[in-house]
Each structure stands twice: as C-alpha cells, then as structure tokens.
C-alpha cells in the first residue's frame, strides 16, 4: 500500500501564517513611527506669564538676562595680539634636495625652518630620516638629529647629512623625511 504525504498546511496553517505576518507588519509600522517621532504627540508646555523672571524695582540687585550667571564657567581665547604655538613644528619645516652621493656614500637633505611668530624665538629639535622606498617597509637607512634656534619671523636653513658605513652600495630607492621638529619657546 502506498502512503501519501501532504505537503500543504491547510486552512489552519495559513491562518497562523497570515496572523504572524500581520503582527510583524504592525510591529514594524509602530517601530518606524516611534523612531520617526510621530507615534506619540509631544506634550505642550504652557508657562503662565506670572512665572517669567522679571526684574524687580524694589530689589537691590539688578537682573540682566544677557549677562552670564556666576555658574557659567569662563572660557579663554587668546587675544588677536597673543600668539599660540603647536609644539609639533613640522608645519614650520620643509625639505629639498634629497640626495645620495655614491662617491662619498652620504645622504644629504636641505632643511629650512621658518618661525611663524613675530615675537618669540623657538628652538627646534629636528630629526631627518632617509627611508627605504622600495619596498616601503618603514625601515630607515639613516638618521640625522640636530637642534636649531630660529628667531621671530626668521628662516634658518641647514644640510642634514648621514654617511653609510658600507664600502659598496648597489642600486636602491630612498626618500627623505622630516620625522621630528619639536618646538620649544625660548
């Protein structure tokens, strides 16, 4: 005898499916309306005119609604004549003529530092790296460090140098980078 299996769910199964779909759709609409802010009206707040703060003529202190309260914390901003500075002075420094001399086995890089202040002298603690360029893996061929003082509105230029301790050097790629220019007011 061959048995038949029924694959449909019948009327009762369809009713449950329809009910679940309707409940899910209702919940989705309610969620969207609540998130959108239109499901529930905002309560209206009415302040009677007698509750407004007004200055009293018999009071010894005067009320100024535009003056800050004693609880407001003052904020500080420099005046237009007062200068601020960032201790990271790399924006004040630039480099040019990144070079390597095969005969001297020496890297060179011309560094210029311009002090943007019109009143203060700064000392710059400089670091220049000659970095491996192919592959650019973050390794340095050499490092040059120097401190230099720059007067107000002045530009100082120097040549950073690093000599390689190898007798023969094949072909290689490199870049020059100013990796530090820490600025200190003198």
Features:
186 residues; alpha+beta; three-stranded antiparallel β-sheet; 1 helix; 15% helix; 33% strand; disordered N terminus
Describe it for me?
By secondary structure, the protein is of the alpha+beta class. It is 15% helix and 33% strand. The chain is built from one helix and six strands, in the order αββββββ. The strands form two sheets. A three-stranded antiparallel beta sheet has the order 1-2-5, with no helix packed on it. Strands 4-3-6 form a three-stranded antiparallel beta sheet, with no helix packed on it. The protein is flat, with a radius of gyration of 37 Å. The termini are far apart.
Secondary structure topology:
Elements lengths: L9 H27 L56 E9 L4 E9 L7 E11 L7 E11 L4 E9 L10 E12 L1
Antiparallel strand pairs: 1-2, 2-5, 3-4, 3-6
Biggest β-sheet, characterized? 3 strands, antiparallel
Unreliable residue stretches: 1-12
How much helix is in the residues? 10-25%
Class computed from helices, strands and strand pairing: alpha+beta
Number of helices: 1
Strand order of the largest sheet: 1-2-5
Beta-strand fraction estimate:
25-35%
What is the molecular shape? flat
Distance between the termini: 105 Å
Oligomer: single chain
* Cα-based radius of gyration, to the nearest Å: 37 Å
Mean pLDDT: 76
How many DSSP-defined strands? 6
How do the SSEs run, as a string of H and E? HEEEEEE
